[in-house]
Every structure is written in C-alpha cells, then in structure tokens.
Design brief:
Blueprint (H helix, E strand, L loop, with lengths): L2 H19 L10 E2 L4 H5 L4 H6 L1 H15 L4 E2 L7 H9 L3 E2 L12 E2 L7 H10 L1 H8 L6 H24 L3 E2 L10 H9 L1 H10 L1 H21 L10 E6 L9 H7 L1 H13 L3 E6 L19 E3 L6 H8 L4 E6 L1 H6 L2 H15 L4 E5 L9 H15 L4
Parallel strand pairs: 1-2, 2-5, 6-7, 7-8, 8-9, 9-10
Antiparallel strand pairs: 3-4
C-alpha cells in the first residue's frame, strides 16, 4: 500500500474514532485492539521476551494487529518493559517472566504491604513526591526503570509515526495522567491493609490523599493543552476503587471526588480521559453523567453491565469494549459470536469502540478473537 493511501486510511480511521467518542452516529463501528499479553502468544513468541525486549514489545503488537486484520487502532502502543512501568504506576512489586517467573507465564503484581502505616506520617511531613522518590527503590530496580523511560522517551516519536504509517490510530496517545490517590495508596499498602485503613484511620488516609492530590493536580496543570492531531487520550485508572469492592460511603469519600476533579481538569486542557474502570461499576454508573459529556471513554473489564450502562449513562460517553476476557479464553466461537451480535445490537453505530474487555487475556483462544472481529465486519457490511 502506498504512503498516500496509508495516510488517507489513517485519517479516515482517526475521524471515525473521534466522531465515535463525540457520540455521533457513525457509518461503521471502529475496532480497537487491546491485548498486551495476547500479542506475543498469538505470534508464537515468549512472554519473557515481551517483558524484557523493549523493541520486540513494540513490534509484536503491530504484527498481531496486521495478522488479525480489520483493526482500526489500539488503546495503547506497546513498547518498553511492562514490569517497571506497572511498578511505577501501581506502587507495587511486579514479578516478571524470565526473572522471577517461568518464561511463558503472565507477569504478576505482588499483593503485599510495602508502604507501612508509619509511611502515612512521612507523606504528611515531607510531601508525596519526596516520599515516592524514596519509596520506589522498594518496588522496582531504578536502573531498569530509568532505561525503560529513557527508551520510551527516545522512541516515542518513532512508535507513533510507525502506527500512523501502518494506518492505526493510538487512542491513548497523550501523556498518561497521574495515578489517582486511592489507586496509589492501595497498591502500596496492599488491598487488604488499605481497606482496613479506610475503617481504622479514615481521617489520616483522607489527609494523605489531599497531599497526593495537590501534586496530581499540579502535574495535570503542567501538562500542555492538547494540540496534537490524534485523540489526546490519557489513561485514568480505577482498578481497585470500584463500587463492587467498596461501600457507598467509602466510594463517595475516597474515590469519586478525586476522579471527577482529575477528569474535569484533563478535559479542560483538551485531553480525552480513558476511564479504565476494572471490576463491577454497576451501582454507580449514573455518576458518569457528572463528567463532561462526549469527552471521555469508559473502558471496563467485562464485569459491568453493558445494558445498564446504555440505560443510565449511554449518552454520556463512548464505550471501549466490552467482550469479556473469560468468554474469549473459555467460551466457544458460537458463544462469542452471539455475545458480539448482542453487543452490536445494543449500541448500534453510536458510542462503541469495539474491543475485548479490559485487555484480551494471554490465553484468549485465537479463533474466538478472530470470530468477534468477523462478526463486527459482518455488522459493518450492513447499512445502519
């Protein structure tokens, strides 16, 4: 394919995705690749190489997208070392295949207490960023982290250019937003310890969150207004603060106000928050209507009801998903086809960025992934 035709294809896909995010009726439903660990397995590679060979991690996802066909873009462009990246993002140790784990198994976030109770007082005394600088060596090799971020900074432009040249839109193409306070503390303390902290020392936790939030908002304020040609997507995570895990009073106090403040600030600067909300969000789906309309993307993991989302918040933002991982890993091709048809019928051609829920798992059956894409192509081949 010539350079001009590839550029035209990219621009058509970018326009389609932007109009989908803006909640316009579109001529076809765009297909978005999400399958970090699926790519090397699908292409016959080892997960250890994916985790440790930064160039391979970049190339193998593109190769998987090419092989699958019918893909318009991806949520995230792979590249770098995923272990150090996740450690910095989640404040947790990450066991990596080929190092702590067998070479063809999935990386594992270690659910353990690293941040101590006494560390809350350190944050209150010294501030969040000074604490993080001293804390990170507890969970990650700083040499590997530096090499990873250095490689990403050096190669970011090349990665983006390559995706454009291959005709693929990267949705999360802007700088990642800071980690919300709840997620940072829960990752550092461990879920068990942190949830007990919410009950035993709620005022101290809240005070520490306010300290963190000052740095979070300062970082967002320092982000330049989005002026790029792409989507301007920035990942805002809600991995552990889901309503399915928390009582309403804790969600209202420790989770939602911080997310709202972050999202509104990001939208005001022209960014598109990609709300990566794992677990069950059904109880609070109506709260999504409090966020700027047609400016965000909800990215769940298969546990949130698509029908309820459409009923209570379906006009508020686009959906990125949501064929459940468990279905892709263990279901039959017939079950995948039926689920996909029902999902497309529910959304029609408005507000759906079609993808697997959260991230296609390492053990997704290739025939199931190919089936969901085939059913999407059949849908798009009909007039709507």
């Amino acid at each position: 394919m010539s350079g001009n035709s590839t550029t035209t294809r990219y621009q058509e896909r970018l326009d389609l995705i932007k109009r989908t995010i803006a909640m316009e009726h579109v001529e076809r439903v765009p297909s978005i690749y999400m399958g970090t660990a699926f790519a090397p397995r699908y292409m016959g590679g080892k997960i250890a190489r994916f985790c440790n060979d930064m160039e391979y991690a970049f190339q193998v996802q593109l190769d998987a997208m090419d092989r699958l066909g019918g893909i318009d873009g991806t949520n995230i462009a792979s590249g770098g070392r995923i272990g150090p990246i996740l450690s910095a993002l989640w404040m947790s140790r990450v066991a990596v295949p080929g190092v702590e784990l067998p070479e063809d198994t999935l990386w594992q976030v270690m659910e353990e207490e690293v941040m101590t109770l006494a560390d809350y007082d350190v944050v209150l005394e010294k501030g969040w960023k000074p604490f993080v600088r001293d804390y990170l060596p507890r969970v990650v090799d700083l040499r590997l982290l530096g090499e990873t971020f250095g490689w990403m900074a050096q190669n970011g432009g090349r990665i983006q250019k390559t995706y454009v040249e291959r005709g693929y839109v990267v949705i999360t193409d802007a700088k990642m937003a800071p980690t919300p306070p709840f997620e940072a503390l829960c990752g550092a303390r461990s879920m068990q310890k942190f949830f007990l902290d919410l009950l035993r020392i709620p005022k101290k936790v809240e005070a520490v969150m306010e300290v963190i939030m000052r740095d979070v908002m300062a970082d967002i304020e320092a982000m330049p207004p989005w002026s790029g040609p792409g989507v301007g997507g920035t990942w805002v995570g809600g991995w552990r603060g889901a309503p399915g895990l928390l009582a309403p009073r804790h969600f209202d106090r420790f989770v939602w106000p911080y997310i709202v403040e972050m999202v509104r600030a990001l939208v005001a600067k022209g960014y598109t928050p990609v709300l990566h909300f794992d677990q069950d969000w059904n109880r609070e789906l109506a709260r999504l209507n409090e966020l700027p309309q047609g400016k965000c993307i909800l990215n769940p993991d298969g546990m949130t009801s698509m029908r309820k989302f459409r009923e209570v918040a379906g006009d508020s933002m686009a959906m990125l998903g949501d064929v459940p991982s468990v279905l892709l890993a263990t279901g039959t091709t017939e079950a995948v086809a039926e689920y996909t048809r029902n999902l497309l019928a529910l959304f029609g051609n408005r507000g759906l960025l079609f993808a697997g829920g959260c991230d296609m798992p390492i053990n997704a059956r290739p025939e199931n992934v190919e089936t969901m894409l085939r059913v999407l192509q059949e849908h798009n081949g009909r007039r709507h």
